[in-house]
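Subject: Acetyltransferase structure
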Amino acid sequence: MKDVSIFHRFFLLIFKWLRGLHKLGTTWKWRCLFGNLGRLSSVSGNIYVYHPHHIFVGDATRINHGVVLNAMADIYIGSRVRISPGCIINTGGLDYEHPASVRKHIALPVRIDDGVWLGSGVIVNPGVSIGKNTVVGAGAVVTKDLPPDSLAVGVPARVLRELSYD
């Protein structure tokens, strides 16, 4: 029985090491492709990126698996930002103010300031800015700018309350 335990621990250690090596390789790939990927920032698992040269990420930011970054225009992501699994940050779309036959593609930049946390499945629409230290609840759709130090939830995302960090 003791041999199984040692065998089990050995393989767990090997798999943990391989997973870390894969994460390091993935992060270096995006460091080469993004406009900027700051110091100590990391990308975990598979993410889907369109036009990576338009993406600028600050220091110590974490982008989790399943995230979609559609950067037809610039995406600015600050430092110490957490982007949870399944988030979509989109800078492009169609101008819905016109009839379908004449709709044109639009591209507006997105800005996510320092310390923001996007919960799982958050969708950020083109032209939106999210203020410093804001938390956006899981499944929210951000259609308008959000102020700093706030908690926003819902579809469309609305500020539920201000956050104080004392």
